[in-house]
Amino acid sequence: MVSLLIVGAYVSIPLRPIPITFQDAFVILTPLVFGTTAYIAIVAYLLLGLVGLPVFAGGASGLVALSGPTGGFLAGFLLVGVIIGVAADHWHRTSWWRDMVLAESALVLIYVPGVFWMWHVLQLQGDTARAAIIGLVPVFLVDVAKMAVAALIAAPLRSALAEV
């Protein structure tokens, strides 16, 4: 899954300050499929970027990427791995609806730290609404659609992996 997170970062539409990538879809798909162990893949991905490998959107890496406008979204990935992983493990009814609710909920876990960190980094002086507009409006509908696709493929992936 770490490799999919990396590939997802490179499949992007380079908007500023937040690009549209597929890494969030893979970040959310990981706990839907693997449950609480998903955080291991997400931590590994973040550590690879932290040590300097160009694994983040646009080939970014290191503390510069984490301290830039997208750093909060990357921190949100870890929240998704832990919280959505636990929820996926404990919400035993497996269905497309469950996966959709978890996937769309995971966007909140990415957006909240992402917008607040972007607000801080871009020094928007109390204008959190502007940070939300800059950070969410360009990506929101695309992200909702990506989460629907992730929810659709999660159950077949779980079934295929259970057979292995």
Task: Describe this entry's structure for a reader.
The protein is mainly alpha-helical and 164 residues long. The chain has one domain: Arp2/3 complex 21 kDa subunit ARPC3, CATH 1.10.1760.20. 73% of the residues lie in helices and 2% in strands. It has eight helices and two strands. A two-stranded antiparallel ribbon has the order 1-2. The radius of gyration is 15 Å and the shape is globular.
Main pleated-sheet profile: 2 strands, antiparallel
- Enumerate the spans where pLDDT stays under 50 for 5 or more consecutive residues: none
Please tell me the CATH architecture by its name: Orthogonal Bundle
Order of strands across the widest beta sheet? Answer: 1-2
* CATH class category label: Mainly Alpha
